[in-house]
Amino acid sequence: MAILPAERRFAGRIFVLIGGRNTSTAGHVISLLKQQGRVVLIGQDSGATFTCNDNSRDLTLPTTGIRVHIARTTYRAAVTGLPAGVGFQPDREVRRTVEDMFAGRDPELELARRLIREEI
Predict the structure, then answer these.
(1) How distant is the alpha carbon of residue 79 from its chain centre?
(2) How many C-beta atoms lie closer than 10 Å to residue 106's C-beta?
(3) Beta strands in 14-89 (DSSP E)
(4) Burial track 42-78 (b if 16+ CB lie within 10 A, e otherwise)
(5) How far apart are the C-alpha atoms of 34 and 84, rounded to whole Å?
(6) Taking the domains of the chain in order of start, what are their residue ranges?
(7) pTM
């Protein structure tokens, strides 16, 4: 049984800020949005992809005491045509500088807001 979209729905572009700290389910969400072709990714390469691993078990090796974290399950978003094992590349790359940080500027968010205003 197919789920049909609602008659009244947002059909515009979606602006998503991405970066190296995007992981796990963020990659699932981004991949689903990307599959729809309506997303503009702003920022830097993401640390996420459409797959992630979890259902982990922690294990401490008895002789050395080394602790390992072992993922036992791979979760995949239901998407096609995206490269495996590669983070998402931004459509609009923005590199925050040290000066931006000290000045309290957020150039990724500023660009997203400007693009949204241009859409309206």
Answers:
(1) 14
(2) 15
(3) 14-18, 39-43, 51-54, 57-60, 67-70, 73-76
(4) bbbbbbbbbbbeeeeeeeeeeeeeeeeeeeeeeeebe
(5) 14
(6) 14-119
(7) 0.77
pLDDT tens-digit series, residues 77-101: 888 888 888 889 999 999 999 999 9
| DSSP code at position 81 | S
Write out pLDDT tens, residues 10-55.
888 899 999 988 888 888 899 989 888 889 999 999 988 888 888 8
CATH of domain 14-119: 3.90.226.10
Distance, CA of 15 to CA of 41 (rounded, Å)? 6
83: left (phi over 0), alpha (psi -120 to 50) or beta: beta
